[in-house]
Design brief:
alpha/beta; seven-stranded mixed sheet; 2 domains; Isopropylmalate Dehydrogenase; 12 strands; five-stranded mixed sheet
């Protein structure tokens, strides 16, 4: 039985969305046990009238909520009874719990995970790795996307190793094509950190390094992993997601602008529905925090039920694949490099 904690507060659609997601996840995986943290009365109210296996569901009362505007270090230190910190502490203290999922404050989650959980041996800094769809029907992971604003070339090499193992073991991508986000494709492009990282990645046997990538090629299908510092990666992901959503809005507006467009849209209804599903980031789960001692998955604050189900599925698949152990084994091969 794989046990996963779901933080039921902190997101825009809490506790309704995480509770509904928990029920759906239990239905889909018979060897899954979920622990819900948060205000017990509100969680039980959401569960009323719903059918689920109560032998595989536990509720941990946590009356406090960490707001996204709170200072992460203060929240971690002072709000031990919050749904997020209860989840992190339980994950640390109970060997039978494998992972946690949260849609709460990103800063508090990263700080709490680093302070309370710690890192996989050999990892310098954990990093977020969200997933986006590509134009050829594949997926691309972006690592890092917000955990580390400032990095070194050694950090970028570790991000590449972790993300490559993640894509291969969790999503079945064989020998993932890994690129370094840069201002041009030529090897000499970028600052000293990027040029050093380029040279290091070329000498990293466990990474299928294919060179630099310009941001416009993210969804081209030519890459399976993109390595970046947390600032650039976060801008890249949010710009891509925002562009997709705005294009959908414009398309809808244009369709309703003329009768002939409406008629054409009716004939293409199925195609438009497929494109909307393809471009909606809610269908691809959250960002996994690679490098922590136990599995942590961060969902968008705006995540609805379907997105949180995907987050739980990500955590489940990471534990089934024993990803943390594989990362530790691979990272140990590079201990002789200066970090």
């Amino acid at each position: 039985m794989i046990k996963i904690i779901v933080d039921c507060f902190g997101g825009d659609h809490c506790p309704q969305a995480p509770v509904e997601a928990a029920i759906k996840a239990l239905e889909a995986n018979k060897d899954l046990f979920l622990i819900l943290t948060g205000e017990e009365g509100l969680i039980r109210k959401e569960l009323e009238g719903k059918s689920y296996d109560d032998t595989r569901l536990e509720i941990i009362h946590a009356p406090e909520v960490i707001g996204c505007d709170e200072k992460p270090t203060d929240a971690v230190r002072l709000k031990r009874n919050s749904s997020m910190m209860k989840a992190i502490i339980l994950l640390r203290d109970r060997d039978d719990i494998a992972a946690m999922v949260s849609t709460g404050s990103t800063g508090a989650l990263v700080t709490g995970a680093l302070v309370r959980l710690g890192r996989i041996p050999g990892i310098i800094r954990p990093a977020f790795c969200p997933i986006l769809p590509t134009m050829n029907g594949g997926l691309v992971g972006i690592c890092d996307s917000g955990a580390n604003v400032e990095v070194t070339s050694a950090h970028l090499r570790q991000f590449a190793i972790m993300a490559s193992l993640y894509m291969e073991n969790v999503y079945g991508v064989k020998n993932p094509r890994t690129a370094l986000l840069n201002v041009g494709k030529e090897a000499e492009k970028g600052d000293d950190i990027r040029r050093e990282a380029y040279a290091m990645l070329k000498e990293t046997p466990s990474v299928n390094f294919v060179g630099n990538m310009e941001s416009r090629d993210l969804l081209s299908g030519s890459y399976d992993v993109v390595v970046a510092d947390g600032f650039s990666g976060n801008v890249l992901v949010k710009t891509t997601e925002g562009t997709a959503l705005e294009l959908l809005k414009k398309l809808k507006k244009d369709i309703y602008s003329r009768t002939i467009y409406k008629i054409g849209a009716l004939l293409m209804k199925k195609m438009f529905a497929d494109e909307k599903k393809f471009m909606n980031y809610q269908n691809y789960g959250g960002s996994v925090l690679l490098g922590t001692s136990k599995v942590v998955v961060k969902g968008h604050g705006s995540s609805k039920t379907a997105a949180i189900v995907k987050c739980i599925e990500q955590a489940y698949r990471m534990e089934v694949s024993k990803l943390s152990g594989k990362i530790e084994t691979e990272i140990a091969k590079y201990e002789h490099y200066e970090l």
